Amino acid sequence: MEFLAELSSWEIYATVCGLLGILGIVFGAIARKKFAMAPSILPLLAIAMTTPVTERLVVPYLTDRYPVVFANKGLPKKIDSQITLKKIDLTDRIYSYFYDLDVDDDWFDAPLLKSAQLSDLCDFLLPKFSSGEASLANYIYQFKGKDYSFSVDSSDCS
Questions:
Q1: DSSP H helical segments within the chain, as ranges?
Q2: What is the pTM of this model?
Q3: DSSP symbol at 58
Q4: Is residue 57 exposed (0-12), middle (13-18) or buried (19+ Cβ within 10 Å)?
Q5: For residue 102, is pLDDT > 90?
Q6: Cα–Cα distance, 91 to 68 (Å, whole number)
């Protein structure tokens, strides 16, 4: 089902609509002996259910099952005028966030950045650590052709 998660939003809706429409046609054909209007009404009802089924069942399921696919859909994304989030990866319960920095200054201090952001990062990551979804988060910044990084784990958030 990962292929479905990789589709754009409108493609997910279209796929669900098509499947529900086919089910409506099939059930309408089966029910036509008892209900003469079934072949006309059931496909329309099935198609009308597309939005609630997609929003309440399909998208939440795909988001929970393939969180990284959904997280990467809008990337790269400008965080501010100097920082671009390029990619998010999840491997063996380790989240990795990849950023590009476009800064004129030559300074970059990963430990200083970590300490400045730790409270917000912990607010975001603690539920992931507690649930077992993640054991570590790596933040990788590319700046002037070099990679700078720091990591956050549950002990940082105690």
A1: 2-5, 9-31, 38-48, 50-53, 59-65, 67-72, 110-131
A2: 0.72
A3: I
A4: exposed
A5: no
A6: 10
